[in-house]
Amino acid sequence: MPFQLPLWMDLFAVALFSVTGAMAAREKRYDLVGALTLALAAGLGGALLRDGLFLQAGPPAALRDGRYLLAVLAGAAVGIYFASHVNRLRLVIELADAAGLGIYAVYGAERALVAGLPVVSAVLVGAVNAVGGGLLRDVLTREEPLLFKPGQFYALAALGGAASFAALWAWAPMGAPSTIAAAVGIAVAFGLRVGSIRLGWRTGALSPDRPEPPPPA
Questions:
Q1: Could you tell me the mean pLDDT of each successive run of 10 residues in the chain, 217 residues long?
Q2: Is residue 215 in a domain?
Q3: Does residue 191 sit within a domain?
Q4: Do 2 and 106 form a contact (C-beta atoms < 8 A)?
Q5: Which of 35, 86, 142, 174 would you call most buried, defined as having the most Cβ atoms within 10 angstroms of its Cβ?
Q6: What is the pTM of this model?
Q7: Is 207 a domain residue?
């Protein structure tokens, strides 16, 4: 049986990611339209990329159910009006974000496998489903995308979770049950993300910093 993501969990994750988009708009001093646009990009960007670009199975699921857009509006309202309170709950937000990262990585990979894509492609779709919203948010605000920079595991955590899930489902003896494979994939992504936050696991630049030339004499 395919892994079924509970609707309440999906809506909560959409609202949570939408909060980050609205808070980015506050930091940029955007207006209401800018805040709603960034909330939509951060909350549903990954799902829209998954369904519209990779799977192309009709209208995206996030647009067929109006509750997803209501979740975006709720997240935008929280990010706009309660940003100071959200900042005080940063650790809770980071843990919830890590869980959402794993859930979306697994769910995106599962949707791709069900659609008949090979394992490698499914891992890519899962990672994009997990990090696509943040990527679109950064592009729209003309920021260098966070996942491109050396630092905490984010895209790597999503890739690890999606790969673990897809490998267990496709290559385990007789195929691992979807719930077990999903639990393992979510745990891997969550563990990598939290380990990066709490234990300082980092990626490094491919080339060392070049020393600045001395000033002319």
A1: 76 88 88 92 90 85 90 92 76 82 90 90 93 88 78 87 90 70 90 85 72 59
A2: no
A3: yes
A4: no
A5: 35
A6: 0.83
A7: no
